[in-house]
Design brief:
Blueprint (H helix, E strand, L loop, with lengths): L11 H13 L2 H18 L1 H14 L4 H26 L7 E5 L1 H9 L4 E5 L8 H7 L6 E5 L5 H10 L6 E4 L5 H11 L3 E5 L9 E6 L2 E6 L1 H6 L6 E9 L3 E8 L7 H18 L18
Parallel strand pairs: 1-9, 2-5, 2-8, 3-4, 3-5
Antiparallel strand pairs: 6-7, 8-9
Length: about 290
Amino acid sequence: MSQWDGKSKGTVLGYKIFVFFIKKVGIKSAYLILYFVATYYFIFLKKSNTSIFYYFRKRLGYSYLKSKRMVFNSYYTFGQTIIDKIAIGAGLKNKFTYEHDGGEIIIKLLKEKRGGVLISAHIGNFEIAEHFFSEVDVNFQINLVTTDLEHSAIKKYLESITQKPTINFILIGDDLSHIFEINSALARNELVCFTGDRYFEGVKSLSEELLGEDALFPAGPFLISSRLKVPVVFVYVMKEPNLHYHLYTREATVKYRDEKGLLKEYAQSVETMVRKYPLQWFNYFDFWNQIHKE
């Protein structure tokens, strides 16, 4: 099955080393260490290597050698986004530059005083989105709907050295209490954010084509969004060269109770982004459920 297992790589010691270099030497010095980390991943993480190689070779159609090279570059780019997130959270936001493409959509959405839904993906660096929203001088609350599956020791360490996020987390529960929290947030004219590209075993899924092959997506974000009668916006924060980030916001066309139509538009939106930023696809698992068939 192509579900994600919720586990991220890395250790607290590894994060501490990066934080030391970020604070004492500079952000780009921390990037240099990534060559060793990316090399380790490239050599030893066979399962994720196979998955990301399939993405480059079969879904994007790169040559064998280019796909191999892109696997290494993918790990390196992913590491950069993690370093950037830590640096920005640790108060080094002014070291970066930001470009907001579609900020007027967010402003318009909030002026309607209906709340709204943001749907993102595990591409780019969405976790720094709140810093973009402060740039457009909009005062509101973002509620991120998530599962609490990250490595707890790493999470606690990062919370100790970074600024407290203004994002509120709504945890998905078996008792469906998250549905009530989502409705309450929207009633307060707040934004509710989902990621729409990872599902877990036992969770209802929907199938849609992405990069020429059908894949399974979690049904929840699209079922909920198509029934709330509020604006829905696709949001991505993509890394550019020279410590620059580009946030894209695109308003979706939502028909009531048409979750499949919304998913199709979302998949097309994600595809546009990953074709423009192929190295920023960070789903290191058998997303299309095709590798065992090769």
